[in-house]
Design goal:
By secondary structure, the chain is α+β, with helices and mostly antiparallel strands. It has 2 domains: 96 residues; 97 residues, ATP synthase, E subunit, C-terminal (hypothetical protein PF0899 fold, 2-Layer Sandwich), CATH 3.30.2320.30. It contains 6 helices and 4 strands; from the N terminus they run ααβααβββαα. The longest helix has 92 residues. The radius of gyration is 47 Å and the shape is rod-shaped.
Length: 195
């Protein structure tokens, strides 16, 4: 082998060594890049999974809260409907009262609501037609220290109960007004008894 061949062989060998070193460095860098990419991907996927789990928990909590709210609202609607039905039935039950029971109730209602001074009591035409003879007197015997009630012969445009007129002041004691005025209290009493 000549000197030139030896130089070329040495250059080739050195070149091969350099190529191998470059390939080894490149391979090491590729492994490092792949390792770092895996670490980054694992961290990012863990973060994504953690965020997804947190979001899922939030959605679950919101859904649960929403479902509880819907259930609670539905329960309140049903409970309110039951209370309204009972109160409506009680109102209708008054229509079944005998004349004696009905006017005893009106008497108590009048005594409870009467003010100082004289007033006119306005009844429905139906109630005027079945009015007990001593109704006005029985009320006045209870309230004589406060004033007097005079029953008006002209029927009022009401279904039941009565309206007291003290000049410009009107006290609405129709049964609908009494029930409406006491609706919250009636519902509270029924709720306590039933629920």
């Amino acid at each position: 082998m000549t000197g030139l061949d030896k130089i070329i062989e040495k250059i080739l060998l050195q070149s091969q060594e350099n190529c191998n070193a470059i390939l080894n460095d490149a391979s090491a860098q590729v492994k490092k890049i792949i390792s770092e990419a895996r670490e980054k991907a694992n961290k990012e996927s863990s973060d994504i999974i953690a965020k997804a789990n947190a979001e899922a928990k939030k959605i679950e909590a919101v859904s649960k809260s929403s479902a509880e709210s819907i259930t609670r609202n539905r329960y309140l609607e049903i409970r309110n409907a039951i209370l309204n039905d009972i109160i409506s039935a009680a109102y209708l039950e008054i229509e079944k009262f005998s004349d004696e029971e009905y006017f005893a109730m009106l008497r108590r209602l009048c005594i409870k609501n009467v003010l100082e001074g004289e007033c006119e009591m306005h009844l429905s035409g139906y109630d005027i037609g079945r009015l007990p003879d001593d109704f006005e007197m029985s009320i006045n015997s209870e309230i004589y220290e406060k004033g007097a009630v005079h029953i008006c012969d002209t029927p009022a445009d009401i279904e039941n109960g009565f309206i007291l007129h003290y000049g410009d002041v009107e006290i609405n004691c129709t049964l609908k007004a009494v029930f409406d005025e006491n609706m919250d209290r009636l519902k509270d009493m029924l709720s306590t008894a039933l629920f």
